């Protein structure tokens, strides 16, 4: 079962399913875990990866919080969700830029998921009225 399916099953989603938001939540969940893993890998590197660790951890936390709010269909806080998606997209771009500065496979993969997630966040934010 996918998280998209779970969101679509919520009683408040009937007739109001937002595919762009569901796609963003899906990527946000993965991005949070990829950033956490990258931060851990960066800590094991012999070079100073302090900034990359910091941005990966911050990105993970923001993605996690954004995913949690994006999952909630009960009630309505669309303006805040839109702002959070926009913030999260910026954080993902910043994390990706930092990861792309390093020649480590874990950073390359983290940068890729962060770029995908940033794009999904932008699409989801634009889809919220």
Question: Can you describe this structure?
Answer:
The structure is a single chain. The longest helix is centred in the N-terminal third of the chain and has 26 residues, at 19-44. The chain starts with a helix and ends with a helix. The radius of gyration is 15 Å and the shape is elongated. The chain is 77% helix and 0% strand. With 129 residues, it is mainly α. α2 (19-44) runs antiparallel to α3 (50-71). The protein has helices at residues 3-8, 19-44, 50-71, 78-99, 105-127. It contains five helices and no strands. It has a single domain (17-127), classed as Substrate Binding Domain Of Dnak, Chain:A, Domain 2, CATH 1.20.1270. It holds the Pfam family Csp. This is Four-helix bundle copper-binding protein.
CATH architecture: Up-down Bundle
Q: Please compute the radius of gyration using only Cα atoms.
A: 15 Å
| CATH fold description | Substrate Binding Domain Of Dnak, Chain:A, Domain 2
DSSP helical segment count: 5
Protein name: Four-helix bundle copper-binding protein
């Amino acid at each position: 079962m996918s998280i998209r399916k779970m969101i679509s099953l919520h009683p408040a989603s009937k007739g109001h399913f937002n595919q762009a938001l569901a796609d963003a939540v899906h990527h946000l969940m993965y991005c949070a875990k990829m950033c956490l893993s990258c931060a851990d890998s960066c800590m094991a590197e012999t070079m100073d990866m302090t900034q990359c660790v910091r941005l990966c951890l911050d990105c993970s936390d923001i993605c996690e919080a954004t995913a949690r709010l994006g999952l909630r269909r009960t009630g309505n806080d669309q303006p805040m969700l839109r702002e959070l998606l926009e913030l999260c997209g910026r954080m993902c771009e910043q994390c990706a830029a930092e990861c792309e500065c390093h020649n480590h496979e874990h950073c390359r993969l983290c940068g890729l998921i962060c770029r995908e997630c940033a794009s999904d966040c932008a699409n989801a934010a634009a889809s919220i009225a």
